[in-house]
């Protein structure tokens, strides 16, 4: 009986760590979190949309595009 429980636990853990390829299912939410930046308000993209502004770099090829209302206010001169 203990062997079945251990085997079941291993199968469940294996399924939890498996990330199937593609953009369907619950992985869309996981991909959105990992593709986000600037406190989850921005998105890593090759080119920002018209309503977004570039703020920081996500990596060497992508920009962190953020809606201006989420950016910090610049004060002083």
Number of helices: 2
Contiguous runs where pLDDT drops below 50 for at least 5 residues: none
Rg, alpha carbons = 20 Å
Class from secondary-structure proportions = alpha+beta
What is the strand arrangement across the widest sheet? Answer: 1-2-4-3
- How widely separated are the two ends? 72 Å
Strand content: 15-25%
SSE string, helices as H and strands as E? HHEEEE
Label the overall shape: elongated
The percent of residues in helical segments reads 25-40%
| Sheet of most strands | 4 strands, antiparallel
Mean pLDDT: 79
Topology, element by element:
Layout: H1 2-17, H2 27-34, E1 36-37, E2 42-45, E3 53-57, E4 63-66
Antiparallel strand pairs: 1-2, 2-4, 3-4
Family: Belongs to the beta-defensin family.
Subcellular location: Secreted
InterPro entries: Beta-defensin, Beta_defensin_dom
Describe this structure in words.
The structure is a single chain. With 77 residues, this protein is an alpha+beta fold. It is 31% helix and 19% strand. It has a four-stranded antiparallel sheet. Residues 36-65 form the Beta-defensin domain. It is found in: Secreted. One of its GO terms (cellular component) is extracellular region.
Concise synopsis of the structure shown:
The protein is of the alpha+beta class and 77 residues long. It contains two helices and four strands; from the N terminus they run ααββββ. A four-stranded antiparallel sheet has the order 1-2-4-3.
How would you describe this structure in keywords?
77 residues; alpha+beta; 2 helices; 4 strands; secreted; antibiotic; signal; disulfide bond; Beta-defensin
